[in-house]
Amino acid sequence: MTLAHFLRRTVIGTAMLLMMIGVPSSLHAQGTPITGTAQVSISGGSVIVGNNVQVELKVNLTGVTGQAPDSSTTAAVLGAYVIDVNFDSTRLQFISAAGGSSPKFAGDPTVNASTGKVTLSAVQNSASAPTGLVGVAFLTFKGIAAGSAALQP
């Protein structure tokens, strides 16, 4: 089963990205105003019915900036995320989620799975990283029926 050019699909604004949650403002790597738009993408491949496929969920903060304590511009840091991933549950079965390729999000995320939707969330406490393209989670799905099925963040 092909997962319809499976996921180099980038969707803007469908994820709630929280910058440095729960950290006093004097410790933030960036402050307001935050400028730019974060993008969420999923990259992966295809799967044969009965087999599993692993995909990576990434948040792209490239071009997203905030104000540093000295009033200069600095790269935005991903402190936390809550991302919904929707999928066709007649063709795919969610199996598991694991930490991403970014060291700050290498621990397993909190997962809330329901029919056709997985909500992932995680928090990290560094004020200086990660920035840029951040791999936040790996998701594993099983192909359960033939046909195309897109994953949509």
Task: Please give the count of helices.
Answer: 0
**What gyration radius follows from the Cα positions, in whole Å?**
16 Å
| Helix content bin | under 10%
Number of distinct beta strands:
12
Strand order of the largest sheet: 1-4-5-12-9
Q: Give the low-pLDDT segments.
A: 1-28
Q: What's the rounded overall pLDDT mean? A: 81
Coarse morphology: elongated
Largest sheet: 5 strands, antiparallel
DSSP strand content: over 45%
How many angstroms separate the termini?
Answer: 20 Å
What is the string of helix and strand elements?
EEEEEEEEEEEE
Overall SS class = mainly beta
What report would you give on this structure?
- The strands form three sheets. This protein has a five-stranded antiparallel beta sheet, with no helix packed on it. A four-stranded antiparallel beta sheet has the order 2-8-11-10, with no helix packed on it.
- Helices cover 0% and strands 46% of the residues.
- The chain has 153 residues and is mostly beta strands.
- The protein has no helices and twelve strands.
- It has strands at residues 9-12, 16-18, 31-35, 39-43, 52-60, 65-67, 73-75, 80-86, 92-99, 110-114, 117-123, 133-143.
- Residues 1-28 have low confidence and may be disordered.
Q: Can you describe this structure in just a few lines?
A:
This protein has strands at 9-12, 16-18, 31-35, 39-43, 52-60, 65-67, 73-75, 80-86, 92-99, 110-114, 117-123, 133-143. The protein is mainly beta.
Describe this protein with a few key phrases.
153 residues; mainly beta; elongated
